Amino acid sequence: MKSTYVNVKLQIVFYSICIALVAYVSPALLRAETDFSSKASLPNFATIVKQLTPVTVNISSTKTVKSRFRQFGAPFNNQDQADPFRDFFGDDFFRHFFGDMPDKEYKQQGLGSGFIIDEEGYVLTNNHVVEGADEIKVKTHSQKEYDAEIVGRDPKTDLALIKIKNLKKDLPVAVLGDSDALDVGEWVIAIGNPFGLQETVTAGIVSAKWRKIGAGPYEDFIQTDASINPGNSGGPLFNMKGEVVGVNTMIYTPSGGNVGIGFAIPINLAKNIVSQLKDKGRVIRGWLGVVVQTVTPELAKSFGLEEGKGALIADIEKDGPADKGGIQSGDIIIKFDGKTVKEMSDLPLMVAETPVGKKVNVVVLRNGKEKNITVKIGELEEKQVAVTEEKEKEKMGLTVRQLTPELANMYGISEQQGVIITQVAPGSPADEAGLRQGDVIKEVNRTAIKTINDYLKAIEEKKGENILLLLKRGRTSLWVVVKPRQ
């Protein structure tokens, strides 16, 4: 009996010691595993940057721009300001004595970044860095400067492939990674040429993935807080393995400088574009032949859905792939070629990346029931929309996008429908008329504008004539006349 009592007592002492040890050791282990403030938990940026900097290049471009003298009645390019001279005399008074002022040519300089993708001297950058350039210069890590030429451009994704001329030696080549494997919160490094400051290195994390901000029809941006500024465009975004995971493209900023919200094109999207630009000089995309819109909560309820999902078919092009396959207006596409269509903006990129001629299964909701439809994907003819849009961009000097909730939030506007101006070229007719980034185009020549197609159609009907625009700028509406170049 005494022996049993002693054994029980010893066991109690033993377990008490174990519990005390666990209570003492566990917090120390937990602190060691979660002490993110220690230097040991941070990556060695210096070692990685030494390996990455040589594959990054600086790009400078020069292009000739024609500029008219500003019209009387548009001082300081500010249409919000009253003009007593115009109000008193009128525009015709000045034209009567001075006529239309002649065009003036000047050289416009541009700076950007890029990175070398193979030993032959091919460099990937943004389209807007080299678009319209008469001369392109590439400066490497060794300070050697080369002439370069454009191999191909893709304005829809803002990517361009250029090639260094007369390359005399091998250059270091970037390793392209897998952008789909990125995790939110993962460390990334941006290297580029902001404000002409060569080989500037910034670091941050992946803030978000699959961002759609209304910048173009095919977008799936990586959002990062690594500092990106003017001149970083086209430069690489690296992961901590030293692989390129994105092409730095744009920032969101109310001030013109970095505020911690930058966007990069995923390298997986760029890989297919680069391959086509290298082989064909252009990009061939799949075509479904539909006009889609967002399934809002109100529309979802009207269609008997519990939540807004998929892409609602608003219109179908006659004899297009969708029409031939049996898709109808009012159908909601929820799956395309085995991929879930969570929202309307998912579909254009899915279709564009599908090989021409491939037969795909499309799952639609029709009258509340799922229906499987087989569609043979056609080829998107750029002349259908892209060429028209590019042509009008050249004539007027502005880039427009379909207004989305994301764009409305970015520009701080209340408008939810229409076409928004996202870029105005310096010295262009649009610039001279006082148009600004963030203006919403409500009417063109007294015709209401709700979609990009409405805008292009209205512009096309007035070839060679002045264009009357009704704009919404903040809380103010104003009329502006733009004289396109011929």
Assign an overall shape.
globular
CATH topology of the largest domain: Thrombin, subunit H
Distance between the termini: 112 Å
Domains counted in the coordinates: how many?
4
CATH class of the largest domain: Mainly Beta
Percent helix, as a range, is: 25-40%
- Rg value: 28 Å
The total count of strands amounts to: 27
Structural class: alpha+beta
Whole-number mean pLDDT: 80
What's the arrangement of strands in the largest beta sheet? Answer: 1-2-3-6-5-4
Tell me what you see in this structure:
25% of the residues lie in helices and 34% in strands. The relative contact order is 0.09. The longest helix is centred in the first third of the chain and has 33 residues, at 2-34. It folds into four domains: 1-42; 43-283, Thrombin, subunit H (Beta Barrel), CATH 2.40.10.120; 286-379, Pdz3 Domain (Roll), CATH 2.30.42.10; 383-482, Pdz3 Domain (Roll). With 486 residues, it is α+β, with helices and mostly antiparallel strands.
